C-alpha cells in the first residue's frame, strides 16, 4: 500500500505543497492521539471561553487549534492561517506561499459522548503583498488542496489536490497514513438523507417541501423510500456521503434571525465542496454553487446541500419555485 508521501510523489504534487500536506497529516496524528486518550488525558469538556462566533469552546477545540497553529508556524510554507477558533487571520511566515483555513475540531459537541469528530482543512495560494483578511477572500475554486481527518474507529484522511479524492487509513502500529481508496466516488443516486430534523419548522419552503416528499416514500412523488442518518458532525456525514452516497444538508433556517446559516464557508463548506465535486458529487447553497461563492468575510456562514449529484439536483429543483400557494407545514 502506498504511503501518503509516496502518493504525493506519484501525483507530482510540488515539494512545498507536499510538505504542507504532510505537516497537516502529522499534526492530525497527534490530534488523533489526544482524542483517543479522552478522559485519561483530561481533554474532554468545555472551557469558559467563547469563540468569535459566540460558541462555547471545548477544551479540545483550543488544544487542536493550538496544535495546528504551532505546526503551521514551524512548517515555513504558510503565509497565513484562518481558523474557526481564531478571531482574526494569523500571520505565519513572511516567505510562505500558502494560506491555510481550518476547522481544528469539527463536531465538537460529539467529543463528550465519544462519537465522531474530525479536522477539516483548505489550502489557498497566498497573494503577494501584505497579509490581511482580504488575502483569504478567494473562491473555493482557488483551493490547491483540501481534506479532512476523521477520528473514528480508525483514523482516516480524505484528500484532494484536484486529482480526485484519495482515502488513507492511519496504521495504528506504524503510525503511517496508507492509501486504502485511490478514487473515492459518490454514486449519483441515493436513498439516504442527512438533516437535523429538529429544525424543520424553521426551514424555507423549498426545503420543507423537498424533505416532506422524501418522507412520503413510495406513496409520494419520489416513489421510493428514503432512510435518514445524522451524525451531528459534518465531517462524519460527508465521510458517509463519500463512502456510500447520500445527500447532506444544513439549510437556511430562521431559528435565529441573526444566524440563518450554520456551517462556515472557509473552514467547512469550501473544503467539503471541493472533495465532493472531485468525487463526482455536487455542492450548492440551494441558489449558488458553493465553490463559486466569492467570500466577503473569513467567518462567513452558508447554507449547504451536497452529495449524490442526481439527488442534489432533485433538491435544487424545489428551489426558485413559487411557494406562495403551498400549505404551511409548521
Ligand atoms: O446537530 P446540530 O447541532 O444542528 O449541528 C451539527 C453541525 O454543527 C457542526 O458540528 C459545526 O461544527 P463545529 O463543531 O466545528 O462547530 C457540524 O459539523 C454539524 O453538521
Ligand atoms: Mg465544524
Ligand atoms: Mg470546530
Short description:
This protein is α+β, with helices and mostly antiparallel strands and 330 residues long. It has 7 helices and 17 strands. Strands 4-3-5-6-7-8-9-10 form an 8-stranded mixed beta sheet, sandwiched between helices.
Written overview of the protein:
It comes from Shewanella morhuae. It is found in: Cytoplasm. Pfam families: FBPase, FBPase_C. The protein is an alpha+beta fold and about 325 residues long. It folds into two domains: about 5-180, Fructose-1,6-Bisphosphatase, subunit A, domain 1 (Fructose-1,6-Bisphosphatase, Chain A, domain 1), CATH 3.30.540; about 190-315, D-Maltodextrin-Binding Protein, domain 2, CATH 3.40.190. It is about 30% helix and about 25% strand. It is built from seven helices and 17 strands. It has helices at about 5-10, 15-35, 60-75, 205-215, 235-245, 265-280, 310-315; strands spanning about 45-50, 55-60, 80-85, 90, 100-105, 115-125, 145-150, 155-160, 165-170, 175-180, 190-195, 225-230, 245-250, 265, 280-285, 300, 305. The strands form four sheets. An eight-stranded mixed β-sheet has the order 4-3-5-6-7-8-9-10, sandwiched between helices. The protein has a five-stranded mixed β-sheet with strand order 12-11-13-17-15, sandwiched between helices. A hairpin with a 6-residue loop joins strand 9 and strand 10 (about 175-180). Helix 2 packs antiparallel against helix 3 (about 60-75). The longest helix is centred in the N-terminal third of the chain and has 23 residues, at about 15-35. The chain is globular and about 55 Å long. About 45% of the residues are buried. One magnesium ion (MG) binds near residues 84, 103, 105, 106 and 108.
Amino acid at each position: 500500500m502506498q504511503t501518503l508521501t509516496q502518493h504525493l510523489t506519484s501525483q507530482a504534487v510540488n515539494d512545498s505543497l507536499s510538505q504542507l500536506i504532510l505537516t497537516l497529516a502529522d499534526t492530525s496524528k497527534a490530534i488523533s492521539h489526544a482524542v483517543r486518550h479522552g478522559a485519561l488525558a483530561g481533554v474532554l469538556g468545555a472551557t469558559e471561553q467563547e469563540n468569535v462566533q459566540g460558541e462555547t469552546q471545548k477544551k479540545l477545540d483550543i488544544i487542536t487549534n493550538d496544535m495546528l497553529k504551532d505546526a503551521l508556524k514551524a512548517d515555513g510554507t504558510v503565509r497565513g492561517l484562518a481558523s474557526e477558533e481564531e478571531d482574526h487571520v494569523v500571520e505565519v511566515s513572511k516567505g510562505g506561499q500558502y494560506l491555510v483555513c481550518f476547522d481544528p475540531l469539527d463536531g465538537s459537541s460529539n467529543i463528550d459522548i465519544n462519537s465522531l469528530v474530525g479536522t477539516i482543512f483548505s489550502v489557498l495560494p497566498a497573494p503577494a503583498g501584505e497579509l490581511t483578511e482580504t488575502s483569504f477572500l478567494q473562491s473555493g475554486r482557488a483551493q490547491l488542496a483540501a481534506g479532512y481527518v476523521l477520528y473514528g474507529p480508525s483514523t482516516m484522511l480524505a484528500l484532494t489536490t484536484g486529482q480526485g479524492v484519495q482515502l488513507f487509513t492511519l496504521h495504528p502500529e506504524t503510525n503511517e497514513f496508507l492509501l486504502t481508496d485511490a478514487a473515492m466516488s459518490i454514486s449519483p443516486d441515493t436513498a439516504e438523507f442527512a438533516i437535523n430534523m429538529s429544525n424543520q419548522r424553521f426551514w424555507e419552503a423549498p426545503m420543507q417541501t423537498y424533505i416532506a416528499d422524501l418522507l412520503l416514500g413510495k406513496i409520494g412523488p419520489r416513489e421510493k423510500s428514503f432512510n435518514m442518518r445524522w451524525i451531528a458532525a459534518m465531517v462524519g456525514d460527508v465521510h458517509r456521503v463519500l463512502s456510500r452516497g447520500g445527500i447532506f444538508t444544513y439549510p437556511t433556517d430562521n431559528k435565529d434571525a441573526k444566524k440563518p446559516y450554520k456551517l462556515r464557508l472557509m473552514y467547512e463548506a469550501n473544503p467539503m465542496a471541493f472533495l465532493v465535486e472531485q468525487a463526482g458529487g455536487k455542492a450548492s447553497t440551494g441558489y449558488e454553487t458553493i465553490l463559486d461563492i466569492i467570500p466577503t468575510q473569513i467567518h462567513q456562514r452558508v447554507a449547504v446541500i451536497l452529495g449524490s449529484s442526481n439527488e442534489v439536483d432533485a433538491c435544487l429543483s424545489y428551489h426558485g419555485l413559487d411557494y406562495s400557494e403551498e400549505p404551511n407545514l409548521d
